[in-house]
Amino acid sequence: MQIYLPIAEMSVNIFILLGLGGGVGFLSGLFGVGGGFLMTPLLFFIGIPSPVAVATEANQIVASSISGVLAHFRRDNVDVKMGFVLMIGGVLGSTFGVWLFTYLKSLGQIDLVIKLSYVVFLSIIGFLMLIESLRSISKKKRDVKSKAHHHNWMHGLPFKMRFRKSRLYISALLPIFVGFVVGVLAAIMGVGGGFVMVPAMIYLLGMPTSVVVGTSLLQIIFVTANVTILQAVNNQTVDVVLAMLLMIGGVIGAQFGARFGSRLQGEHLRGLLALIVLIVCAKLSYDLINVPADLYSLGRSENH
Amino acid sequence: MKRFLFLFIVLSTVWAIKLSSPAQAGDITVNLSDPIVKITAGFSGTDLLIFGVVPSDGDVVIVVRGPIREEIVRKKDKVMGVWVNRDKMVLENVPSLYMTASNRSVDEFMPDGIAYTHQIGAEYIRIKPHKDYAHVKDWERFRHALIRNKVKQNLYKQESAPLVFLGNRLFRTKLHFPSNVSVGTFGIETYLIRKGKIAAFETTLLNVRKFGIEADIYNFAHRHSLAYGLLAIIVAGLAGWMANAAFRKA
Hints:
The complex is a heterodimer.
Chain A: E1 2-5, E2 10-13, H1 14-31, H2 36-45, H3 50-74, H4 80-107, H5 110-139, E3 160-163, E4 168-171, H6 173-189, H7 194-205, H8 209-234, H9 240-261, H10 266-289, E5 296-300
Chain B: H1 2-20, E1 29-32, E2 36-39, E3 46-53, E4 59-65, E5 68-79, E6 82-95, E7 98-102, H2 112-117, E8 128-129, H3 140-152, E9 161-166, E10 170-177, E11 184-194, E12 197-210, H4 212-223, H5 225-249
Parallel strand pairs in B: 2-12, 7-9
Antiparallel strand pairs in B: 1-3, 3-10, 4-7, 4-11, 5-6, 6-8, 9-10, 11-12
Helix pairs in contact in B: 4-5
C-alpha cells in the first residue's frame, strides 16, 4: 500500500515506513538509545531527501523523548535545573545549527555535510562501544574507579551554580557548552544527540549516572522541538505524515525491544549495537567514496 | 469494462463534436480522460488517456510539457577521496516534465525544422544557461546531464509513447505520470503533420494538483509554517504522552 508523503513529495510503501519505525524502535528499546542516528540514515537509504529526513526525524524524537522522560520523572531521575541550563545551550546551538543547515543547503553541500557528520560520529562511537564491550566481555569487570572530582581548569570558570540533584557545584558555562554542541548536531544530523551528551555528562560534567539519561531526555525534547519549528519555518521540510508513521512503528517496536532486552547481557547488547552502528557507517562511507552512478545531480532552484 | 467506458466516451465525444461544430472542420479535437491529475494520499503515479479526432490524414505527435522553471545542475568531483559537489550551472526554460506520443517514430515523418522550432523531442527543448552562467563554455554537458537525470527520474521520455489510430481520424494514447510529478499547469500540444508540414495544431491544458489532506498539509506547511511547526510538536507530544500511558498500564 503506497502513501504519498506531502512534504517529501514522493510515494512510499506504508509498510516499509511502519517496519522501519518498528525496527528502529525495537533497537532503541533494546539498547536504551534514542535511535535517531539509525533512523535518519535509513531514511536516506529509502530515498527520502536528506533535508526532509533530518527535520522529520527531529519531530519524531520529540515524541519518543517525551515518552521516555515521563518514565524517568516517575522514578525521580531527572535533574530539572541541569536540564534547564543544558537547554539554554541546546536552543542556542540548534538555532545556530538550523541556520548553518539552511546556508549549506543553499551552497548545495548539505547532503555532504550530513553524511560526513554521520560517518565521523558513527565510526567513533561504533569503535568505542565495540572496544568497550569486547574488553568487558573478555575481562569480565576490572574494577576501575576513577576519582569523580579532580580539580582542573574547568573548575576555575565563572558563573558557578549548584545542581543539588546531580550533587555538583560547577560553572553554568560547561552544561551550556555541552548543550550547544549537542544542539548543533541535532539540527544538522536529525538526532537527539544522547550518544554525545550522555558521555559528556558523565565524563565532562561528572554527573551521577542515575540522573544522566532522564536529564538528557529532558534537554532533547526542547532541542528537537526547537529544531522542528525552525526547520518548518526556514526550510518547510518537516513531513508530519512521515513522522506519524515512524512514531506508530517506533512506539510498538520500543515495547518489544525493552522486553526482549531484559533477557540479554549488557556487554553483548552493546557489542551488537556497535556492530549495527558500524554497518550503517560503512554503507554511508561507501556511498561517499564510491564513484557515483552519475557525477551530475539536480537541485531545485530557489533563485540561487 | 474500462475499454467499453473509454469507447463510450470517445464515441460520445465524436458525436458531440459532429453535432456542435461543423464550422471548425480543420481543427484537431483533443480530450483527456481527466483534465486534472489529483495527487491524493494514495497517489503512486497515474495514467492519462488522451484521445481525439484529426481533420485529415497524417501523422500525429503529442507533446506534454510541465511548468517551466529554473533548475540547478551540480557536478561532483573527488576531493580528498570523497565525492563533493563542485561545479554548478543554473539552467532556464526547463519543463518539469516532458513526454511525447506519436503514431510512429517521430524522425520518420518530422522535418528537423519543425522539431527544432516547436521543441518536439527532449533534445530540442530550448534549455539555456542563466545569464550569470552564460560565459561557461561547455555548458552543454550540464544540459545533457539534466536530460539524463530527468529521464532517470521518469520525468522525461526520450522515446515517444505509442499512439494508435482507431479508424482513420480517431486517435488515442496513454501517458504515465510518475508519482514524483510536480504540480502546476501542463501544456498538451497536438500536431498533425502532413507532407512535412503542420496541417493542424491544438493546445490543451492539464492541471496537476494536490488534493484533499495532502494539499491541506502542504499548503499549511508553506503558508503558516510557524503554526505548522508548533502543531507538529503538539502532535508529537501527545503521541509520546499516549505511548507512555499505554506502556505504564501494560
